[in-house]
Predict the structure.
Amino acid sequence: MDTLTVVSAILALIAGIGIFLIACQMMSSNLESAGGERLKKLFANTGRSRLVGIGIGALGTAAIQSSGATTVMVIGFVNVGIMSLAQAATIIYGANIGTTITAQIVALGLSSGGGLSTTAIFAAFAGIGAFVSVFSKKDNIKTLGGILAGFGMLFVGLSMMSDSMENFARLDSVRQFIARISNPILLVLIGAVFTAIIQSSSVMTSVAITMAVTGLISLNQGIYITLGSNIGSCVVAIIAGLTSGLNAKRTALIHLFFNCFGVVVFLLVAGVMSIVSKGNMNFGIIFEHLFPHAPQLQMAMFHTIFNVTTVMIILPLTDILVSMVSRFIPEPLTKESEYTKPHFFFVDEKMLRTPIIAVRQVKLEIEHMAQMAMQNYDRSLHMVTALDFSEKDIFTGTEANLDYLNHELVHYIVRLNALQIPQADHQYLTNAIRTVSDLERIGDYAENITEYADILLHANERFSEEAVAEIEQMRELVFNVYQFTMKAYMNTDREAYWQAHDFEDKVDDLNDFMEHRHIERLAAGKCSALVGAQYIELASNSERISDHLINVGKTIGGLYPN
């Protein structure tokens, strides 16, 4: 009978953990969709102050119900260079505070006043949310249904875990075995290992709370298991960091050091209390007095106080922590140029876990791609007018990066577009694929112009001063098109788009004028046929570049032709 009870309890526990994990993922993805724009704005303010960074980390994690997702997202930001290590540290501090919300929700669910269980009440939201999601035709209502269903499923999973713990608690052999595990270090290790396996500190903390409520473990045992779950939660960040760049690895190490630091501090305090009181005082006794007759609240409040206290202690030491991880993972002896190996600058594979933020990063990646393409256009004009090839290697590296982005960024966008994001973001990403292609073509036209420079160099020919002046005029007009186009693109500014369009008309007029002037100079014997041919091609390529820029601008507000 005992064996059957144990097997049934284990199966119920596994099922409860599975439902709890799925519920967390449902809430996370739907909350991201519902608050996507707010989330984008939230993480855009990380540089204001360290306290703001903590607040953003806490609010962001509370919103998406996943400290792991927040940490992985931060690692992605650091990896692409848009967040410093110090900023990342403060976000991670805040994420640890934000994740305590789950424990408080669990404590609320396990509370009852002797009447109808709050767990049963909240679990009913799973059915309500499912009905809303299935029968609603509006995306925002479906998202709300997903949030309600996820919230309700949290308590369905919690109820199953709680029931399984009650079955374990009825078995004297199990109670006696667990009671023997009193060593704080061993309990911390158990919490860390199990959290690393299931990759969710929220689930491990919730299991510990249900174990304490059913009397399977003491409050003090539950506290040490919770401490271990904080260390185990670092596994997700470490895995993310190992496959990323130097600063991403440092960020993962910051997360590990921070969590281990808090656990060590509390273990030392527990040891001192035990020695001074001769074994009569521990965290369990303290929290039993602070929150009597409510083990679920005692565990949840310890979890919150532990994380808040750790943040308060380590915040003034942030610079030391950053310096320490930088020494542990030093800069390589030889640093490659950013154009040596093609790579992303703003998006990252890990950001696919937070699609709303990833969409914003795609936009920044495209803006940077446009900048690279236009820098190469500028370099090509300098080469062809001055026959100066000193930046040819930079040009080649940049062109390789543009080709890389044309393939890999499109692949990334396709994957991102398949995830759950608002309809407006789906439309943006569909247009973004065209935009990437337009920008890559600008790079190709710039490459054509460098080939004209090679032809002039080998023929020992060059453009006249008049031709160079006209080329400079073309350059200024094309860059005006570029500047207003990107203003329109980044800010959805229709007025800026029409300003870009006006400059594009001037580019067309100048292209016709340059062709006319070329014929006049050729007739007057002021230039050779070879020079004239390169000059006409250059003007034509510049005009096509402005056309592709206008295509980029057309993607705002449905202006792109179907």
